[in-house]
Amino acid sequence: MMRELTYYAAVSIDGYIAGPDGEFDRFLVEGDHMAAIGEKYRGTVPTALAEAVGIPVDDGPFDTVLMGWNTYAVGLPQLPSPYQHLRQIVFTRGHTAPEGSEAVTFTDRDPVEVVRELKTEEGKGIWLCGGGALAAVLRDEIDRLALKRNPVVFGDGIPLFARSSYAPETFRPTSVTPFESGVVLAEYARG
Fold this sequence. Notes:
Blueprint: E1 5-12, E2 16-18, H1 33-40, H2 47-53, E3 62-68, H3 69-73, E4 87-91, E5 104-107, H4 111-120, E6 125-130, H5 132-137, E7 144-150, E8 158-159, E9 171-178, E10 184-190
Parallel strand pairs: 1-6, 1-7, 3-4, 3-6, 4-5
Antiparallel strand pairs: 2-8, 7-10, 9-10
């Protein structure tokens, strides 16, 4: 069985993963959704933060995380290797590896080729952490969506998928879990 690529991300109810200036501070980080989603998607919290607050990172669904440069750069300079417990791959064409990022693979290779190679390897799932431009490039390779829909409207910003000329595609819902906090975990599989 081939490994699957899951796009797991927080998103506003109007479809943005960040505001116009890349801000994501309106997404809820407290509430009844945190423990349940955190357990299901264990290992998706940066290693240093997880260790600081006692969140386990082992036995999660993923062993590899993919990021575009802008998603990766959110943690710089404090977190040059944000997910040390996972294999980390950052797609970039114009940036060099910062100091302290030895555990991160930086590549300018075609993301589709890289994902297709990763899918043939043994291992757990592959997590597409972001961002919207990388998700648009990898759209045909995404097997599952796991969206933490937050009860906020940004009105503008970075969309879940960057604009593209793709034809519409259908994903089928596999699970929808609402929480008292207003967050809804909506999970989908490729049609």
